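Summary for the steering committee. One of the milestones for this cycle was to obtain a three-dimensional model of the protein with G4F bound, which we needed before selecting residues for the alanine scan. The sequence and ligand used are listed below.
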Amino acid sequence: MKKAFITGVTGQDGYYLSKFLIDKGYEVHGTIRRSSTFNTKRIDELISQYSEKKILNLYYSDLLDPSSLNSLLQNIQPDEVYNLAAQSHVAVSFKNPHFSVSTSTNGPVSLLESVKNLGKEIKYYQASSSEMYGGVSTDYLDENSIFDPKSPYAAGKVFAHHMTKIYRESYNLFCVNGILFNHESPERGETFVTRKITRGIGRIVHGIQNNISLGNLDAVRDWGFAGDYVEAMWLMMQYKEADDWVIATGEAHSVKEFLDISFNHVGLKWEDYVKIDEKYIRPNEVNHLLGNPNKAKNLLDWKPKVSFEDLAVMMVESDLKLAEQEKVLLEKNLISKTWED
Ligand code: NAP
Ligand code: G4F
């Protein structure tokens, strides 16, 4: 049985990748952070199904704790390491630059060093990001496009991207960079723009929220479905050689277009509910990201299966159900309203 080690297993991609690898017959080992409240909500179902059978195994660790990462890798001796952990919110990285940058730079170096020193052939996956390109051009971006990071988050990712390549070239290690463009799902963090919108729509429809406050509605992204993108991560790790890969849909859409589709789905007009709040305007914006996934399509035989429209509808439908449950709990005073109008 192959063993995979995943950092960031409690995140959106951690959830989809664990599920995908377990279905492929892997034993999954994941790191979770100690928190004063439970932070395993996304993977609770997987835990109840697979932890007793030792198919899913969880350990407390942090990317800022190299000794814990090293001893975990020594003990587990995984075949594949997927480094998904990061403070992944771009706007937050301006507010918490030390933490954001330390996590995405020191973490990968610690893991790469451990992988190098293990003396076993271990494959390493680094979660690189389309944010590294900076979004100044409207051209298609591919593996050869120039990086021009616009945030602490993106600068940290560029460093990790180069280090992954350096370990590949210097030590002949199987180190892969997956340059993934934005990918979303019903498991997306609730402060990323797509989920913030669909969560808001669910609550508006059920009468427990009045408005959604947003920032730049003209920003353009290449949005895909997270479930499709974790398959691409795995395919990169099975390819005959380690490389850098762009994963994207090849379609660009604005925040306004996401609003259009999502609000139309419930028969409402977004213009009646969306307010612009300056606090969501970033110090330095990434205006336009559009990826060219042809290399992955041709060599990995990967393609995105969920369209932009279906993704928005999938998220709205899921958040309508969540809001319906919240409404009942609110009426029974079992939860309080913590979200903003
Ligand atoms: P996410 O939902 O924010 O998950 C991030 C994960 O990292 C969580 O499990 C989080 O733990 C963990 N984490 C944060 N800081 C940590 C630290 N210091 N030590 C250990 N774990 C830490 O992000 P995602 O959307 O799944 O993205 C996965 C990775 O892909 C990230 O590296 C992200 O930067 C990158 N990426 C994402 C996208 C995208 O569109 N989703 C695109 C390109 C690249 P808690 O649950 O305890 O917070
Ligand atoms: O959903 P976002 O916060 O995603 P962003 O900044 O593109 O970053 C995500 O994708 C990256 C890949 O390109 C990942 F590396 C990163 O970890 C993360 O997953 O914002 C998308 C756009 C931005 O231009 C932002 O300014 O939406 C705009 N936006 C407008 N109003 C908003 C809001 N973003 C957020 N989060 N909240 C708003 O109210």
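Key point for the committee: The first strand starts at residue 3 and ends at 7.
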